[in-house]
Amino acid sequence: MKKYNTAKSKELFFETKKYLVDGVSSSFHKADNEEYPVCMTHGKGSHLYGVDGNDYIDYVAGFGPMILGYAPDVINEAVTKQLAKGSQFSAPTEDLCRLAKKLTEIIPCAEMVSFQSSGTEANMHAWRVARAYTGKMKIVKFEGQYHGWADEQKVTIGAESIDDLGPREKVNKLMPTAGQRVSTADDLIIAPWNDVDVLEKILREQGDEIAAVLMEPYMCDEGPILPKPGFLSTAKELCRQHNVLLIFDEVITGFRLSLGGAQQYFGVTPDMAVFGKAIAGGISLSMICGSREIMSAGHPSGTFNATPIAVAASLATIGELEKPGTYEKMDAIGKRLTDGILDIGKKHGIKVYANHHNAICQMQIGMDRAPLDFRDCLQNVNREAYDRFYLLARDYGVRLTSGRGRIYISTAHTEADIDRTLEVFDYILPLSVK
Ligand SMILES: Cc1ncc(COP(=O)(O)O)c(C=O)c1O
């Protein structure tokens, strides 16, 4: 198998680094363990093309938004049409009304919606609405779950070991970024996810002060972990008992597990939800939603909230995803990939776990069963092997998310993409595990 030459990417990255902090525009555009990232020229469908002339089968999906693949004709056409009419009016439009109505029809918890531009902003707004509605200030957030980079959000999102996390009953507040205001975490309670007992205790003892329990309903950002059977419905019932709102952060799961998100997929409807990433197929748009009563508790401003461009892209994305068989096709592609990963693991006698759920797949090296929670991953996933796997995949034409084992499927992925990917994985898996 021939290794890609990426000399031009290296040169371009170090030139960019002279003018742009870290040489990338978001910290994960370069993995910690790579000297330089591959620089791209364009994408089409499930492939990205590098400045070095290399062709990559991509499973990063621009961090999630590209659920229809890169440069999908249907979005290009909708956006181009709208561009000709104007990109920004700061006024309602007919399409805005259509989109808001459509979202309330497809998302179970949505009686009303409110738009923002990024997942970070939408989560900030959701927390504020929850506090305004309940008159309480504390938010329960779970270890290993990322909801955005704002001071109050980026708390205990990662850890080197479970010692850093502290006891399950009183998880440490880890604020990883220099300059984060420590006092913003005063109103946070950090809990282990998938643990009903600890959640019950927190709500019993502090429910009077807690506005909301916020969670990724399928923990994805730091590496996929499924909710234990009954965890989501029990969390909902506990929240109801203590007059606390349950908020699902569906920034990743929204439109990926199903059009109605994880709440539709798992059949548990939260009080509020936050959507972003895939809802406009690659143009920035995010949204919070909930009942009419809750959503009336606050309204944000924002120059770029739901621009006509984003609205056009979102309507086009929904139109595609609504076509019969779309999710079944993505699920079948994900199954082909993850069955293949499991077979490769068996063939080489290497412990690998893989699973697929519509447009989200996962793989973990070092485990041969589903991870139970964040601590289980920290203790048992072979992160060094995955880091090497990530770099090797890149060298042989497969683009993965670094460090986390999360794999995004789009409507553009083909069986041929999967078969080629598996050939590469078959070659690199033994090389990754020393
Ligand atoms: C679950 C989750 N919530 C919120 C965010 C923040 O979204 P954004 O990067 O659009 O600000 C992310 C981003 O990766 C995420 O994965």
Describe what this molecule looks like in 3D.
By secondary structure, the chain is an alpha/beta fold. It has a domain at 73-321: Type I PLP-dependent aspartate aminotransferase-like (Major domain) (Aspartate Aminotransferase, domain 2, 3-Layer(aba) Sandwich), CATH 3.40.640.10. The protein has 14 helices and 14 strands. It has helices at residues 7-16, 73-85, 94-106, 119-134, 162-165, 196-206, 231-241, 261-266, 292-295, 308-321, 326-348, 374-380, 383-395, 415-432, and strands at residues 40-44, 47-50, 55-58, 112-116, 138-142, 188-191, 210-215, 245-250, 272-275, 286-290, 352-357, 360-365, 398-399, 406-408. It has a 7-stranded mixed beta sheet with strand order 4-10-9-8-7-5-6, sandwiched between helices. Strands 1-2-3-13 form a 4-stranded mixed beta sheet. β1 (40-44) and β2 form a beta hairpin. α6 (196-206) runs parallel beside α7 (231-241) and α11 runs parallel beside α14 (415-432). The mean pLDDT is 97. The site of pyridoxal-5'-phosphate has 14 residues, from α4.
What is this structure's SSE topology?
Layout: H1 7-16, E1 40-44, E2 47-50, E3 55-58, H2 73-85, H3 94-106, E4 112-116, H4 119-134, E5 138-142, H5 162-165, E6 188-191, H6 196-206, E7 210-215, H7 231-241, E8 245-250, H8 261-266, E9 272-275, E10 286-290, H9 292-295, H10 308-321, H11 326-348, E11 352-357, E12 360-365, H12 374-380, H13 383-395, E13 398-399, E14 406-408, H14 415-432
Parallel strand pairs: 3-13, 5-6, 5-7, 7-8, 8-9
Antiparallel strand pairs: 1-2, 2-3, 4-10, 9-10, 11-12, 12-14
The protein binds pyridoxal-5'-phosphate.
